[in-house]
Amino acid sequence: PQINMTILKGEKGDRGERGMQGKFGKTGMAGSRGHTGPKGQKGSVGAPGERCKSHYAAFSVGRKKPLHSNDYYQTLIFDTEFVNLYDHFNMFTGKFYCYVPGIYYFSLNVHTWNQKETYLHIMHNGAEVVILYAQVSDRSIMQSQSVMLELQEQDEVWVRLYKGERENAVFSDEYDTYITFSGHLIK
């Protein structure tokens, strides 16, 4: 036997109390972007920022004493300081120590000694980079050499007198500065 449920249905009752909230369903797809709202008011001025930090490195040193070669390589030690920004050039060791990595320009100027050879290297971390050379001559002349090097922090750059078979020397005297070595950070 089957019962027709529609005939057993009574009148609609009062609304019941609200039940507990059910579980959240899956997140739906994002809707399309709405219309752009009106422009807001101009904000207040912010606090001033820090000044742009520029890094510098520069030195220029000279030597008033002549130097002759002997049985070993000699680091050129300088006795006159023209510029030594932040003491990156050590006057005691004769070496420039890099504290600011970058591209540097170095120049070396010497006065040759007549009847003697002049043979020097600009050194970078123990490696010969460029040479300044003058053959034996009846007269002394000014010679120069320059180079750009990319340096990392803790790199060292200095000038070394080469040990040769001939007498090797650079001229100077106590009154004038004939020998100069300079360098500065380019970038």
From TrEMBL:
Listed PROSITE patterns: C1Q (PS50871)
The entry's keywords: Collagen, Secreted, Signal
TM region(s), chain numbering: none
Annotated Pfam families: C1q, Collagen
Primary location: secreted
GO CC annotation terms, alphabetical: collagen trimer; extracellular region
Chain spans, region Disordered: 1-49
Domain C1q: 52-187
Gene3D superfamilies, per database record: 2.60.120.40
Composition bias type Basic and acidic residues, residue spans: 9-20
Protein's cellular compartments: Secreted
InterPro entries: C1q_dom, Collagen, Collagen/C1q_domain, Tumour_necrosis_fac-like_dom
Protein's recorded name: Complement C1q tumor necrosis factor-related protein 1
Source species of the chain: Calypte anna
Lineage: Eukaryota, Metazoa, Chordata, Craniata, Vertebrata
